[in-house]
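Researcher: Good morning. I'm working through a list of sequences from a screen, and I'd like to move beyond sequence-only analysis. For each chain I'm collecting a predicted structure so we can compare shapes side by side. This is the next one on the list. No need for commentary yet; just the structure.
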Amino acid sequence: MNLKEFRESMPILRATRARVASRLLADESPQKKDIDFLLHYLQKLSSLPERDGLRLFLEAEKPVALDIGYEIRESQKDDVYLSRDAGSFRKWWRGSHPQWEQEAESGSAALAGAKLDILVADRDGTINNYCARYWSSVQPVHAAVILSRFIRAYCTRAMVLTSAPLKGGGLVDVNVMPSDLCVYAGSKGREYSTPDGLCGHDTLLPDQEEKLLRLEEKLTRLLQLPHYGLFARIGSGMQKKFGQLTVAIQDIARSASPALSAQFKAEVEAAVWETDPEQKYFRLEDTGLDVEILLTVDESGPGGSLREFTKGDGLLFLSSRLKIPLTGEALICGDTWADLPMIKVAKNHGARVTAFFVTRDPALQEAVSASAEKACFFSAPDSLLMALM
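Model: Good morning. Structure tokens for this chain:
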């Protein structure tokens, strides 16, 4: 398999997994041709030559080393899931990481007897494991089925709210759950797709659009330089979002050296402040893997203080635009500080929040516990999924 074939296989993989998940959710057996495709895909990835834990692809007849651990591991889990009953899969899952069972039981107990008015979940690192590239982070079948069944059984409304773009290599391109199951929101909630197929987005001012376009052009030229081309291929690459640009400075496999990553980050920051010397339009957020370049919002009307747009702002926008009340019982799932504003917004509007966070950061755990009525913490997205299962 060469790199071009690998990339072009993603839409086919997503469509196949979606068909399999759809049939399982209808209590029907998947078609043999789809199961055979998934098995063949796993075999092809597993048979690629390996070097230092990376797999070698051909690009222009030269080997390119990539971390495809996510793609192989999630396919392996699906292979087990599709060949066993739910109880056997859970037993296998528990056996691979015994601490997950305790975390899952704690989460399940926190939701005992609850009927949720709303579920709001981040995606990557929360209900989906991190992948070295966003465009190949196709949701596995088992996760799609577990989440779908949970939403149908326990949630009046559900929303997946991510900082990734909605389309064009974004959330809908890697999602396997049924499209009519919940609101899918990208760009921290500034763009959305509803269960009935309605798509929409927030509004930007003309000068904001012009600044974003100028900055995108600068960053594109930067990524075209030979010594920075790596950052277009790893992690998020460069993602154009609604009201936001994201540029990878590293990936989970640490493909870039610390020195090169720091140098590139400095170049990105220089391009931002060259475009916005008065720091009127942009704020930066360093996630450790990406630099998020966010349009500011006015805190208190014209002339007020400026700050970055948060997922809390996105949740508030979606609630207003789509007439979704933020009251009653809410389950909010996240994994980073960027997800904390969603809890605060829901609380401010009267919701009783249970928080599920995938984090080992004591400071973040303390902040989540102080913000929500109930909080449970997980060491991996898999243990959170087990709680929902």
